[in-house]
Amino acid sequence: MSQYKIEAGTGQHIGDRKEQQDRTALFAAPRAPGYVMAVVADGMGGLSGGALAAEQVIRTAKQAFDHFSPQTDDVGKMLETIALDAHTIIKLTSFSSEKNPHSTMVALVICPDRTAVWAHVGDSRLYRFEGPNCAERTIDHSYVELLVREGKLSREEAKNHRLSNVLVNALGSHDREPQVTLRRYEGLKAGDAFLLCSDGLWHYFTDAELGAAIAMNSPRQASEMLINKTRERTTDAAGDNCTLAIVKLVEPPVETKSYTVGKMKRAV
């Protein structure tokens, strides 16, 4: 069983856009005590279309987690099903409207056996930190990431490339089924932390900056700090929606035992 307690929080800012098309949520599993889920979705597809797509991701995730049972269900399979089911519904939505909705997805489940499982589609990211150090992060399903992997673009060039927002994998596409990338990590411990966020946040920070902010603050404080710093670093009133969820594993409080000496009560 786990030897830590979970602290979590979310944050959002509309940026300089007319509408907030990102969504984020934290869930507990009614039928699976000790399991926690965090989800971030970044919607795309014109006015209201993107918001509807991202909302569908959150709704699908909640429904699946509400029915999840560790006795009969696999966490990784559940996350993959969430992505595929949301994809199908988003795609059907486009047939009944004039919109062309799409969404990214990144979802994390913390299990009581000290295991973390996550899945992503698109360029919304998950970072795993050990203390302030970034141990790993998801690899974007984007055109520029393909160029980086092929050696045609450096990591620094990719960050500010004019096509950095072009995705090769997203929920709601009509020409292809989404590819869901799954990852599992075992041996969680106090001091570990996870950040899930849309590209409206990660674009403005180095891995080291994100790790330091999360390690030194509560999830709520870190969320406020990162959003404020994002707004400071945004230029030309062109800031995107900014959304994040933070999950931290912290040392449980030390239990105190009391004893009586004469008429004086002391705690140890």
Radius of gyration: 20 Å
Low-confidence regions: 258-268
Quaternary organization: single chain
Largest sheet: 6 strands, antiparallel
Shape: globular
The rounded distance between the terminal residues' Cα atoms is 26 Å
Q: Topology as H/E string?
A: EEEHHEEEEEHHEEHHHEEE
| Tally of helical segments | 7
Q: What's the number of extended β-strand segments?
A: 13
What is the structural class?
alpha+beta
Note the topology.
Blueprint lengths: L4 E9 L8 E7 L7 E9 L4 H18 L8 H21 L6 E2 L1 E7 L3 E7 L3 E6 L2 E5 L5 H7 L5 H5 L21 E6 L5 E6 L1 H4 L4 H9 L3 H15 L8 E9 L7 E4 L2 E4 L1
Antiparallel strand pairs: 1-11, 2-3, 3-4, 3-5, 5-6, 6-9, 7-8, 7-10, 10-11, 12-13
What does this structure look like?
The chain has 7 helices and 13 strands. The chain is of the alpha+beta class. Helix 1 packs antiparallel against helix 2 (75-95). Residues 258-268 have low confidence and may be disordered.
Short description:
This protein has helices at 49-66, 75-95, 143-149, 155-159, 199-202, 207-215, 219-233, and strands at residues 5-13, 22-28, 36-44, 102-103, 105-111, 115-121, 125-130, 133-137, 181-186, 192-197, 242-250, 258-261, 264-267. It is of the alpha+beta class and 268 residues long.
